[in-house]
Amino acid sequence: MSFKKAMLLLEDKSFFLGRSFGAEGEVMGEVVFNTCMSGYQEILTDPSYFGQIVTMTYPLIGNYGVNNEDVESTKPFAKGFIVRDYKDRASNWRSQETLDSYLKRNNIVGIDNIDTRFLTRKLRTRGALNGIISTVDLDPESLYEKLKVFPSMEGLDLVKDVTPRERYSWNQTDVWISERFKPEGDFKVAVIDYGVKWNILKILTALGCKLTVFSAFSSADEILSIKPDGVFLSNGPGDPAAVSYAISPIKELFDKVPIFGICLGHQLMALASGAKTFKLKFGHHGGNHPVKRLETGEVEITSQNHGFAVDYDSIDKSNWEVTHINLNDKTVEGIRHKKLPIFSVQYHPEASPGPHDSGYLFKQFCELMKKN
Ligand SMILES: NC(=O)CC[C@H](N)C(=O)O
Question: Which residues of the sequence carry a binding annotation for L-glutamine (predicted)?
Fold first, then answer.
């Protein structure tokens, strides 16, 4: 690996000199911090990170390498990667490649030797900031000139860049997942792919769902044409309120089939119900967010990755019930329709990376399809 210098500059003009790893070049994006202690490969390949530069609060990154199995999509979607201490010696029986070589091969710019604790504290007090990482220009003035015209995440539709153009079928799972999830029946499920994580598809498959995956541009009629037993709304990048074309098809599906939404899918379901979304100060990105399930009073430790949230006050409480609340900041984590078999959560029950407390939600979706 190289020992070339790299620079990170934020929109508040603060800059950090570090060391280049991964690809060389220059990238801009919204800088967010993730508090997971492992799972960098799943994080990098989660399409919801499209448009963002991720910094890990866990200091040692790269030490267990990279493999072909732990990816959440075809390639890394994060724009750039910031770490405290990159370890080039990968030690794990599943490792096939170093993170440095993986990032180089996929043209993702990384920077290490950054005081990620200081950076995270700054993002926490200032809120998410745009940033630029460069290995080709180390002049803060000139980096700032480039960054200042870069758009803010608010108002950006990034789903159009990651959603598939054509529908496809999915029938893969893996041994770890099929140990936890057993077939619950034989269901035909339409997935709307706004940037879906593969772990979701693998869990649904293990539960006995035959999946047809649709583009975000699909109409309700196209989706209903396969006569699905249920519809799943996926996670995805960007500002949910900007994905206007995806909202009315969901609304049309409301009284037709059971629907389950995760993260962006949850936000779009809420928007279709007439509620509003807003941008959080620095978002929730990590594997230890406590969420209270209001029905039972139980607390789930959840995996999360979102910068926007559903506004509690805007929810139509005569038809919808808030089912889950985040115990850190009391934001909405789940909603359910009072009569129709439709529900969604803001967090990630598929985890990957993260704890498995919330896996029951997938079974709940199967129960609704069975009853219907
Ligand atoms: N993981 C996701 O689906 C993220 C949803 C949305 N892009 C947000 O940041 O809030």
Answer: 48, 236, 238, 264, 267, 305, 307-308
| Ligand 1 pocket mutation, candidates 263, 282, 347, criterion most atoms within 8 A of CB | 263
Give the helix/strand (H/E) hosting 19: strand 15-22
Which CATH code for domain 5-147? Answer: 3.50.30.20
Residue 262 contacts residue 362 (beta carbons within 8 Å): no
What's the rounded Cα separation, in Å, for the pair 296 and 273?
25
pLDDT in tens, 291-321: 999 999 999 999 999 999 999 999 999 999 9
- CA 190 from chain centre, in angstroms, equals 20
Residues recorded for the chain: 372
Please state the atom number of ligand 1 nearest to the C-alpha of residue 46. Answer: 1
Q: At what angle do helices 264-272 and 244-253 cross, to 10 degrees?
A: 70
Q: For residue 151, what is the DSSP state?
A: P
CATH number of 159-371: 3.40.50.880
User: Which pLDDT tens digit goes with each residue over 89-142?
Assistant: 999 999 999 999 999 999 999 999 999 999 999 999 999 999 999 999 999 999
Q: Whose Cα sits closest to atom 3 in ligand 1?
A: 235
**Which ranges of the chain does DSSP label H, i.e. alpha helix?**
40-44, 99-105, 116-126, 140-147, 159-162, 175-180, 198-206, 220-224, 244-253, 264-272, 360-371
Domain boundaries along the sequence of the chain? 5-147, 159-371
CA of 239 to the centre of ligand 1 (A): 7
CA-closest residue to ligand 1 atom 8? 306
